[in-house]
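Dear colleague,

Thank you for sharing your sequence with our group. We've completed the structure prediction you requested, and as agreed, I am returning the results in plain text so they can be pasted directly into your records. Please verify that the sequence below matches your submission; if there's any discrepancy, let me know and we will rerun it promptly.
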Amino acid sequence: MIHCGKRHVCTVIACILIFASVLICYWKDLQLPNSITRQIFPLATTDRPAGQLCRGKKVQNTITPLKDNRTFIISPYFDDRESKVTRVIGIVHHEDVKQLYCWFCCQPNGKIYVSNAEIDVHSDRFGFPYGAADIVCLEPENCDPTHVSIHQSAHGNIDQLPRFEIKNRKPEPFPVDFTVCISAMFGNYNNVLQFIQSMEMYKILGAQRVVIYKNNCSHLMEKVLKFYIEEGTAEIIPWPINSHLRVSSTWHFQQDAKDIGYYGQITALNDCIYRNMRRSKFVVLNDADEIILPLKHPNWKTMMSSLQDQNPGTGIFLFENHIFPETFSTHMFNISSWNTVPGVNILQHVHREPDRKYVINPRKMIVDPQKVIQTSVHSVLRAYGNSVNVPMDIALVYHCRKPLQGDLPRESLIRDTSLWIYNSSLIKNVNKVLSQTLL
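Please find the predicted structure tokens below.
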């Protein structure tokens, strides 16, 4: 108890003690978050635009490592298909990363909310320690965050954290019907002629956009990519994954014990689906040496319309992959001006390997991106609605590459000239690209 000779002295001391107590409580409130979210009020400001209240280092790179070097952020996407969440596509070490937090920047007041993240590592890691992951955070109520930071702690200084724009926040009409996703281009890729042929076939069949996750390629290939970028067909996503992890060019850890398989292909495919979720009606998932070839329809649009009519509620369509070995060729379409261009001339490869009785052909996909939650390479891991295997008489994946059944003689191969239906348009279009790129 405090004893005073005069009443006003006691009053002053009491006021000082009350003020000090309020300051201490306010400081503790900032330092100790509750179990669900923490709310931090920014410094008062009257002269800065609201967008500048969102602090942190704005990220421009495709792959951003966090300080733990066990978590790599690709991009966050708004996802309101079940509840209002931000789904961050990333790569994590499946054992070492146990806890992450989303630091949301809300508009228009610029408040920062910290939310606990659910880390969902995709099941198809194929033994590699690192794999694709969804880092999912429930967004706070009455908040339309434009940016988010990912951190290992609910505490910290947001000015020091990388700040990612949350994509897909605004609904957009479907500007294109088909987007092709190719991942990943690596190994100083130089199969120039086949790449141009594939690109032109995609366009003939109905693709308006081709998204390519590029690790590296040859100088000649760079010229071709530049042409397609300027044309408006290609969108190049830099993919320097080998700057962060030891990458394998194989699909399974037992074949090559590195950090992550096949240059992080699965992560790139998932990012491509979410990147195009609100700007493409369908997404085509295949490699640059593969073409989903309709056999009963002139293009993808009429084929998909028919398949959807026959399979209502289906958003995942899987097509059988068939190998057309580049070791067997025909003398047809031996175009002299193409002989100086490095790469395979697919028009000369019209013999496919027969099915093997006890081997299931892998499949590639055309999907409605709004019905996909997680995808692998040959199937979708989680989705809304059904998947359907498209019969081979409707379409197949034309895959011209090194043989899988290398011991087969030519007589054992099946002659299949379905590709030649498009030969006139394809030759004209390829010649146009070659002339304009001066190859």
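Summary note from our side: Residues 176-438 form a domain with the Spore Coat Polysaccharide Biosynthesis Protein SpsA; Chain A fold (CATH 3.90.550).

Kind regards,
the structure core
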